[in-house]
Amino acid sequence: MNKSTLSKYIDHTYLKADATKDDIIRICNEAKQYNTASVCVNAYWAALVSGQLAGTDIKTCCVVGFPLGATSTASKAFEARQAIKDGAEEIDMVINIGELLAGEDGNVEADIKAVADTVHASDKLLKVIIETSFLDHDQKVRACELSEKAGADFVKTSTGFSSAGAKADDVALMRQTVGDRLGVKASGGIHSYDEAMEMIDAGADRLGVSATIEILEGAEGN
């Protein structure tokens, strides 16, 4: 896959706790240079990123309930609403992982639906992070099914802050579960062109990566 095609799979991501304004401006400039799909940041930076990306088709993406997923549903919905007000066009929320593990499917679905309703009220896009490293096969399937039922637009593998990130087998399972009805985003631990292509071949149509430059430079000659 050539560089220009691959770039539009990429959410250029910077979610470090010690991110500074200069860091955020730098990644926005990198995103503009490589023409990525989005820049993904913590919601505090939404307005800055939106301003930096004005006049481009690169989306501002913000995380919600990140990275643990254990904040209240009301706070997740508020965080999403505020991020959109500040310019976010895509929201990546973390499910309530503990409630999924406990079999409290109704609570998991309600949590996602509250954010989905908030995001869709502004005609924006919602990705749901299921944090695959905590889940077994059936739980991954259930998380995807609940996400779809609650109105998500994408399911996403990982925060990148847990014990493991994206795995091709998980991406394939998620794609099998949601079919072509939802998007699938692979995120966490993708550092090279070959790893990126492995995720795309498994069914991912978006990649959350911080190693954007290395991955896209690796596309040279392909």
TrEMBL record:
The active site is at residues 92, 156, 185. Pathway: Carbohydrate degradation; 2-deoxy-D-ribose 1-phosphate degradation; D-glyceraldehyde 3-phosphate and acetaldehyde from 2-deoxy-alpha-D-ribose 1-phosphate: step 2/2. Gene3D superfamilies: Aldolase class I. GO terms for molecular function: deoxyribose-phosphate aldolase activity. Keywords: Cytoplasm, Lyase, Schiff base. Its EC number is 4.1.2.4. GO terms for cellular component: cytoplasm. It is found in: Cytoplasm. Its main location: cytoplasm. It is an enzyme of class 4 (lyase). InterPro entries: Aldolase_TIM, DeoC, DeoC/FbaB/LacD_aldolase, DeoC_typeI. The keyword Lyase applies. HAMAP family: DeoC_type1. Belongs to the DeoC/FbaB aldolase family. DeoC type 1 subfamily. Catalyzes a reversible aldol reaction between acetaldehyde and D-glyceraldehyde 3-phosphate to generate 2-deoxy-D-ribose 5-phosphate. This is Deoxyribose-phosphate aldolase. It comes from Bifidobacterium bohemicum DSM 22767.
